[in-house]
Amino acid sequence: MSSWVSRTTGSHKVQLAAAAAVSSALTFGLVVGYQKFRRKKRVEDLKSSIPDISQEHIATQLTDWGAASDVLKPSKEDERSAALALRARQGDYDDELILEQLARNRVFLTDDGLSKLRSSFVIVVGCGGVGSHAVAALARSGVSTLRLIDFDQVTLSSLNRHAVATLADVGTPKVHCLRKRLEQITPWTHFDCRNELFSEQAADRLLGAYEGRMPDYVVDAIDNIDSKVFLLQYCHGNGIPVVSSMGAGCKSDPTRIFIGDISASTDDPLSRSTRRRLRMLGVKEGIPVVYSSEKPGPGKAQLLQLPEEEFKKGGVGELGVLPDFRVRILPVLGTMPAMFGLTVANHVILEVTGYPHDYLPSKGREKMYESILNNVQALEERLARTSGQDPVGVRVPITLDDVGYIVEEVFRGRSAVSGLPSRLTLTRWTAPEEDFIDDTIEGQKCSKVRMRDLVCMTKDEAARHETEILKGSKNVEDLYSPQIVTLVQSRLEEEAYYEQFR
């Protein structure tokens, strides 16, 4: 064995192979060591090249939203405006200059009204097309403290409707875009920017006090239905004054913009969805909203479908900015969000200052609802008489508000039979049970008719319906087409579902 080892180690080829292996290992070690040395040296050089943070090197500081790119480096004008704004908020700004800038508001609102506005604290949730115009108008009008809440950034498509954004602002948070631009106009305004998504978990903090003062008003300019509904419910339940903007998308007629209670807003899908959800939470009225009564029609813009190729890819929900956010494209005429935002701001100014205002209702339909309620009352009396029951003193458990809800919400302001919008009334869809008058309480008789029993028709259609179905022997299937029967049934089932939450 030892002789084999001696022969092997003494072999010239083995010696060469061993020398090559040792040389390779030594070379590899030297290369690795050199690379490690170079990396360490480069890191040290990089660290030493970074200057200390100072006003002279502001570009190296993180911005308020975590960016450090030279693209977002403030311009000289921005730097001067920010410095002036800081001095103004600290009191180093002549009050006479402020009053001169607000002179037209001052003579309109009086000194007392302007004083209320200047000392007010307003929160704006959503700083897109509607919210940005509301913020700009409130700041220009003298509101001293504005909390801006929005998670989103300015995009190129934002520029057709945003109040102050420029190309230089694309990619920056909307709240900081507003602050930066408006500081150049009203440097004394305190902007409390919250670059985050409004949510149920954050409501107490985002809608809470600023330096010990609760908000005088909240502006809802959110376009996400879940966040919108919770914000309105939170404000309503906590006694915080709030005004809400409904949908400005697909709208083009400025003469159709109204301010009214949320229970009265019509012809707006976002408003309808918001009302339904709020009713489920026990909130039926008491929230002022800005909405458009403009109806869709041939040739008008509609919510666009996603391209077919996007559906084929699957995972359409991943296209949304956030879970449950709209992924379809909403056509927006740039002027309409501005008018919604300015209308919202106008309402806040009038409310905060106590300026008298009596808005024109969008529809003077209260008299029509009273007439319909009387018709329902008379119908129940006639049906009681036909069934041999005493009709004297019969009352119906339906209110004026219920009538408006059934006509406008459930049946969209049209006859379920013909689709006509005029000479409307409500009638039972099917004949009542034999004993439909509750007289168990002495001295009081009440019909058992429910909202889910009533259908909207024209008066002529209702008269025929009463004769042939409610008092006659026909069924609804005998008188109406399957399409009408299906439509009515679906609307009544829809109402029955929402009725359980009231």
Automatic annotation (TrEMBL):
It is found in: Mitochondrion outer membrane. Belongs to the HesA/MoeB/ThiF family. This is Ubiquitin-protein ligase-like protein molybdopterin-converting factor. One of its GO terms (molecular function) is tRNA threonylcarbamoyladenosine dehydratase. Residues 104-379 form the THIF-type NAD/FAD binding fold domain. The chain crosses the membrane at residues 14-34. Its main location: mitochondrion. It comes from Rhizodiscina lignyota. Catalyzes the ATP-dependent dehydration of threonylcarbamoyladenosine at position 37 (t(6)A37) to form cyclic t(6)A37 (ct(6)A37) in tRNAs that read codons beginning with adenine. Keywords: ATP-binding, Ligase, Membrane, Mitochondrion, Mitochondrion outer membrane, Nucleotide-binding, Transmembrane, Transmembrane helix. It is a multi-pass membrane protein. It holds the Pfam family ThiF.
